[in-house]
Amino acid sequence: MPRARSGISSPIPSVKFNEALREILNRAIDHFGPQNWWPADSPFEVMVGAILTQNTNWLNTKRAIENLKQAGILNPHLILKRRRILPRLIRPAGYYQLKSQRLINFVRYLIQQYRGSITRMRQRPLFMLRKELLALPGIGPETADSILLYALNKRIFVIDAYTRRILSRHNLISGDEDYDQLRIRCEENLPKRISIYKELHAQLVMIGKTFCRRNDPHCSDCPIADLRGLS
Fold it and tell me: Structure pTM?
């Protein structure tokens, strides 16, 4: 059962965008509890997971990462050294040949630019890192921003299909905004705190997976079912 909320009145039939983001975060935390994302043992594992989870679910990604761990190569230098066995190990994540090459391209970049050091990479300014990541084959905005936020602790909000679907269904966005338009709008209406960016994104994923499904939404049980944006 959801915990009793404090400080937020409910229901709110129509709200401004910034109020809606706050309400979504509070209600989702009350329902699901804090998520403390990203589920990984190291920043590099987050980076690998962000690449492997493209066009697949997290369970498949987790299986692929476990294979890398069991093989003892969840390390940028070892992935590059043993790249021939990479497709077999990450097969559960799907598109394993394509993702193998994307992962190899990424670790080459990490080694060439930062000697394989996450610490060195983290010292680079956000806008420079984002430009570098987006220049890599197969690294789009969502993957790049996931790496920046969760692995490098850079203040940037991640937009995914769940976020777009939830905000659109609740009349908070038109639905045709491009990625960066929606990202910037969220950032402008959130407190400038990395922890809030991480938690809100994670909670939106939980709402999307549990209630706001693409083909079979469960609106009656959703903790934000009554939330509507201003027309």
Answer: 0.92
Please report, for residues 106, 185, 212, 226, the alpha-carbon distance to residue 169 in angstroms, rounded to integers and kept in the order given: 35, 17, 9, 11
Output the CATH code of domain 43-151. Answer: 1.10.340.30
Which CATH architecture group holds 17-37+157-221?
A: Orthogonal Bundle (1.10)
Percent with pLDDT over 70 in the chain: 94
Q: What is the dihedral of CA 47, 52, 57, 58, to 10 degrees?
A: -40
Question: How many CB atoms neighbour CB 218 within 10 A?
Answer: 11
- What is the C-alpha R_g of the chain? 19
| Range(s) of the chain covered by CATH 1.10.340.30 | 43-151
pLDDT, mean over the chain: 93
